[in-house]
Design brief:
The structure is a single chain. The protein is mostly helical and 279 residues long. The protein folds into 2 domains: 169 residues, no CATH class; 70 residues. Strands 1-2 form a two-stranded antiparallel ribbon. Helix 2 runs antiparallel to helix 3, helix 5 packs antiparallel against helix 6 and helix 8 packs across helix 9.
Amino acid sequence: MRQTILIAPYLLIVIACGPSGPPPPRTGTPEYFNKMALDTFAQGDYMKANDWLAKLSKSESESAVQSRPWRLLLLGGLMQGNRQLADDYETGARANKDRPGQFHKKVSDHRAAAASQAIELVDVYDQFVKESPSGDVKLINPYPPKGSIGRPLIVTRVLMGQMPSDSDVDTLYAQMLQRGVISETANAVGAKGDAAKAQAAFKSSPVSVPRPAFQLAMANLLYDASSIFGMKKRNEAGRQDFVLKRVQKALSEAAMDSKEAKELKTKAEADAKDAAKRK
């Protein structure tokens, strides 16, 4: 009984003097939006992370400016996931002669989502260029924690003209978005197709990327975005030309001594001429 009397006050003192962290950021502040973006990103929900970054960008705070390159990679990855899914379902529609309609619906949905994200990507890129007109690019984001850079196995069935179950369709969608984000993150740090090399680059934060290399990655990303509006896709010449102008801007600051850059410049110029004829 005496022990209980002696220990109880001690416990009260420990509890009262226990460690307490800083208060959580106040709802609606840039710090709150940034924390929510990091939390949802850590969960692998890159769509929600992008939504939180979009809210952060409206604050015109320093953290909004710092997060702009992260959002370019995030938004670009989501766009790539939808763009590639649309192409895969389109292949599936050609393979399924009996019921191509269900595939065409997926093509329409994913291509519309990709088109919307492509236009949003251009807007964010314009903000990035205006706010950070020179110097190396700092990536403040962590390496994407969820997903794989490889193609999901479910895609094989789609390409063969077999529509997956509803649950597999949802799984494929999540996996393709995650793959897109990982791929664009790898591209940005000069590790195209190499997830391990890209992840190693993020061991220290922030990751500093030479501007010419980052702009070449952006030129490739924006070129893929422009293809969504090409004649064989959505056939929107005005929007295709609108995006291609940013490809030219990115290439003007990219390292042009590589075969990749020269080939991209040639393709972009040819597409711009074709879009001008169709306008």
